[in-house]
Amino acid sequence: MILSGVYRLDKSLSFNNQDVSFSIFCARYTRQQIVGTGRFFINKMLQEKADDLSDDLDLFFNDKGELQVHRIRHGQRLLQGLRKVNYREPAFTALLKSIEKNLVTLVITEDENGKRLNYPKLQADLGPAITALNESRTTHTLCDVILYVSDTKFHCHRAVLAASSPFFATLLLGEFREGKDEKVRLNDVQSHIVSDLLDYFYTGSLNIRNGNVESLLHAASLFQLSSVVTACCRYLSRQLDSDNCFGILHFAEFYSCKSLVEEARAFAIDNFPDTVRTGEFELLSYDQVLFFLTDERCQWCKESVYEAVMKWTKADTTRLEFLPALLRCADLRLMTEDYFKFNVKHEPLIKNDPECLDIIQEVEEDLFQQRTHRLPAEILVQVGGISGSETAGHEPAKVPYMDCLGPWRCSHAILSDLPVSLVSKNCYLNVLAMDDDIYILASMERCQAEDPREMQFWRYVSSADLWLRLPEPLTFHQGQFGFVAAQGRLYAVGTNMAADKAAECYESFSPRNNRWRRIAPVPHTVEKTVMSSCQGKVVVMGYWEGRHENFYVQTYDSDTGTWEHYEVGSFHSGKPQYQSAVIGSKIYLMPYVVARNCMCAFDTENREFERIPMPVHSHIHGGMTAIGGKMVVIGGKDHLNEYTSSVIELLDPEQGEWLDVGRQVEHLRRSHAAVTIRDCGWIHEKLHKVMQKNRKKYARRESFVAGYELPLTDGEYTVPTC
């Protein structure tokens, strides 16, 4: 583990003034000046592009997880450094001659008159010269300085040290006493670290690992080695995890490693619920906690932010004075009502603080206003999808936003852009709506990433037009899987449209306590699953263990935590995959296979299938949802053509007939989700403005609804005053 404790960093950086070496150095510079100079140097070198040596390093991780560092053109750089050293002692002159002897070859040629010419040529390969130089160190040949570190001594060449490190150049070639002494003692560094750095000076190679990275970065800052600092930061960034990110952050701030500071902060924010659970979070200062809570990158749900605030406050009773300010930063109004009611209101620290009670009262009033400003009409929301032709030479694109269709003619508006991470390639969106908010559980697969599998869980707060990130599931669910809401909980079941009884891919999320928990697996493995929420129960339907003559139905009761299962005869032959929507006790199933001449509805009360006519148009991978007791399908692919359908169709169960009710306004799409939420003030106003604009634009032509209005409301209510 790297830097598991923050206070491991608080160590002394002083020199012993009684030692032979550094006596003059420490007489002129205080401890703070020495450390400050090192920090300033690192900060400057990392900022100035001309002096940044990161591009001159060949860095790669071996099988052991060690970072192997090789300085490109090390021999050439070292030779240039030696020539710049203003040091003309006999030992140095002899050293330089021995190096050049291994570098220069005599080239014999003739001029145009046939006259023989001899001239020296510098070899392109400096390896032999560097090897000879390192051998002279190990054999103590021409060495003119001895470094003492604890009880270990190192024979070196003063000029090589000066050419490799500005620190040694100042110390050994300046006016300091060490510039004339043969013996120089180094304090506050470890002998094995000095040995590693000397190898780097002479060979240009260095191995960075868990056991030396902290001490190596400290020594590199002292000796002003920007390339080593860069490599150490690269290694530490690779080691970031939830347990050590705050320790690495503190370490990077101490040594002014700005790039590593930003990486550690970004990691802590991106993994906020996990990093908060570590003990290091409790050691942060108030200013540091405030920084994380107010950072614009912190898009986590306010339940997770509140839990972080309470964990930090309870770690030290002297922090109670900061609680009101932190609660205001948490913005409790964006919590779910259940979480606020059952967790926040009953917290003893809040109940005993008058200022906190005032905040609670304000939040209660805001939540009440949100409830009362909900409108009776329902709106249809489309989430994501793919737009564009699949013909050769065309590249389909993901639709990066959500839009909504209102209950009046010509009413269509874009609600919100999706979070950027949800529009990436190989990202599968599983979508549902509950309590008028939209939840997306995304499954991501990235071939080039260090961790190729990732899940993200988001909640769109429709009343505030805001995306908030929720804690991730306990298990990775691949691709498309069952994702429904029942009895106030959200359920994630199976993986890749299958439910395996032996797999650990069954869990539920409670907005009331902001936690995932595992549930019992299905009794029987099924494939080509269809998952729905019907009459308060989770229903998983599919074909049992490869058989297609029967359909297996398994229902989960959240009150008892048990599954009930039964078998019914398949309505369609050939094991088609279905998409579904629920009205009352019936689960409507539309097969993807276009050759079917009808769809069906499964009645969960009498356990029978009912024949339902297919839509007039094809809607392969279209959106399907229930709205106002009726079924709507929108978009999808036309099976006869290579383009996406623009048709919107509606089924009234009582009439048993599909009606063509309109066309997509823009961005025809497929593979999208369709959900239903209640209208609210700002959405209603936005739809109303678009409707008025479109009616003027199209005159008597109707954009969204062609000759038919969704009979959900009279459409004449006014926008409430917020």
From TrEMBL:
Gene Ontology terms describing biological process: proteasome-mediated ubiquitin-dependent protein catabolic process
Domain BTB: 143-210
Keyword Repeat: yes
Transmembrane segments: none
Record's keyword annotation contains Iron-sulfur: no
InterPro entries hit by this protein: BACK, BTB/POZ_dom, Kelch-typ_b-propeller, Kelch_1, SKP1/BTB/POZ_sf
Pfam families hit by this protein: BACK (PF07707), BTB (PF00651), Kelch_1 (PF01344)
PROSITE patterns attached to this UniProt entry: BTB (PS50097)
Superkingdom of origin organism: Eukaryota
Keywords: Kelch repeat, Repeat
GO molecular function: ubiquitin-like ligase-substrate adaptor activity
GO cellular component, one term: Cul3-RING ubiquitin ligase complex
PANTHER family in alphabetical order: KELCH PROTEIN, KELCH-LIKE PROTEIN 18
Name of the protein described by the UniProt record: Kelch-like protein 21 isoform X1
Organism this protein belongs to: Branchiostoma floridae
Gene name linked to the record: LOC118426517
